[in-house]
Amino acid sequence: MVHLPNVIKEKARAIKLVVFDVDGVLTDGTLTYSADGEQVKHFNVKDGVGIKLLDAYDIVTAIISAKDSAPLARRAADLGIQHFFPGTKDKWAVLSALMDELWFEPGEVCYVGDDVIDLKVMKKVGLSIAPDDAFWMVKDHADLITDAGGGRGVAREVADIILGSRMPLDEAYIKAMLPEFEDKKI
């Protein structure tokens, strides 16, 4: 992990909720359709480990996506993400309601997005992160840009940033080495 500026470390230490967009963040943004019209999405197993690690340290995770699909619902279920909002047109309205429900302030929220639909949210949260291959305008407004591109370990990198702001990463990964960690799907 690259050395982070102190201001980013401070923001990361305050995070209690990490919200991920999907297409372009948890996937590379490619839409694939089978011969019978079913949508296929490719997710990175490294991201699953990152999301599970956040959960293991009591950092809440959520997915807010403008799109909805069976593969996305399956991935959210496999990862045990309780706060799953597919087909969302106003991401800020959904996130505001979730923050109210969980009693979180904007400064305690990290949002990871890659396109203009994410900008409204990214401008209002404590830590905004964009993948390396995000739309240029989003990268201009992000607090941090990951080394990874969408679908290539962005969530894992975000988990490393947040957990690394609180403890040495080799300590954080001890939980990932426990047999019960693998009981959860990644």
Automatic annotation (TrEMBL):
Its EC number is 3.1.3.45. InterPro entries: CMP-NeuNAc_synthase, HAD-like_sf, HAD_sf, KdsC_fam. SUPFAM superfamilies: HAD-like (SSF56784). Keywords: Hydrolase, Lipopolysaccharide biosynthesis, Magnesium, Metal-binding. GO terms for molecular function: 3-deoxy-manno-octulosonate-8-phosphatase activity; metal ion binding; N-acylneuraminate cytidylyltransferase activity. Mg(2+) binds at D21, D114. It catalyses: 3-deoxy-alpha-D-manno-2-octulosonate-8-phosphate + H2O = 3-deoxy-alpha-D-manno-oct-2-ulosonate + phosphate. Substrate binds at D23. Its cofactor is Mg(2+). Homotetramer. Belongs to the KdsC family. This is 3-deoxy-D-manno-octulosonate 8-phosphate phosphatase KdsC.
